[in-house]
Amino acid sequence: MTLRIALVDDHAAMRGALQRLLERQPGWSVVVQADGGHAAVRAIAACAPQPPDVVLLDMELRDLDGLSVAALLLARWPRLRILMLSWHDDLPLVRAAAEAGCHGYVLKDDPPAELIHAVGEVAAGRHHLSTTLRRAQTSGDPISVFC
């Protein structure tokens, strides 16, 4: 079975690099690429009747922020698995992603192996929090849902 992935990032070079990295994994395929939130919703809708298994979603897009996009996607496809991707290691923002229903949060400067692991974890129905962020979290923190 193929793992179907959507990449949503407003930088074409980042999407290209991520696609090459992800598609090196056996059975993984990038089926959607979008440069903004509205484009992501349209592209994922065009995949009907089978949306992607995982959406790798940039926190900062030109038209909408990642939290708004996550809310739009999950309202329409509640079973969609979303992994937030960001430069921001700000814990309140990570908490907001958890509260929005995202299934994981990775940093753009995490090692590629961690990103691959995170996509696999989220696809398997688990949660993932960047190792860097996990070290910064305190016990009982709302982002512990990602651990």
What does this structure look like?
- Helix content is 40%, strand content 20%.
- It has 147 residues and is of the alpha/beta class.
- The protein has one domain: Rossmann fold.
- Strands 2-1-3-4-5-6 form a 6-stranded parallel β-sheet, sandwiched between helices.
- Strand 4, helix 4 and strand 5 form a beta-alpha-beta unit.
- The longest helix is centred in the first third of the chain and has 12 residues.
- The protein is globular and about 40 Å long.
- It starts with a strand and ends in an 11-residue tail after the last helix.
- The mean pLDDT is 92.
- Compute the average pLDDT: 92
Strand order of the largest sheet: 2-1-3-4-5-6
In the predicted model, the low-confidence regions spanning at least 5 consecutive residues are none
CATH topology: Rossmann fold
Query: Sheet bearing the most strands, described?
Result: 6 strands, parallel
Overall CATH architecture: 3-Layer(aba) Sandwich
Number of strands: 6
Strand content: 15-25%
The amount of helix comes to 40-55%
Order of helices and strands: EHEHEHEHEHEH
- What Rg do the Cα atoms give? 14 Å
Q: Structural class, from helix and strand content?
A: alpha/beta
The top-level CATH class is Alpha Beta
Measured between the Cα atoms of the first and last residue, the distance is 26 Å
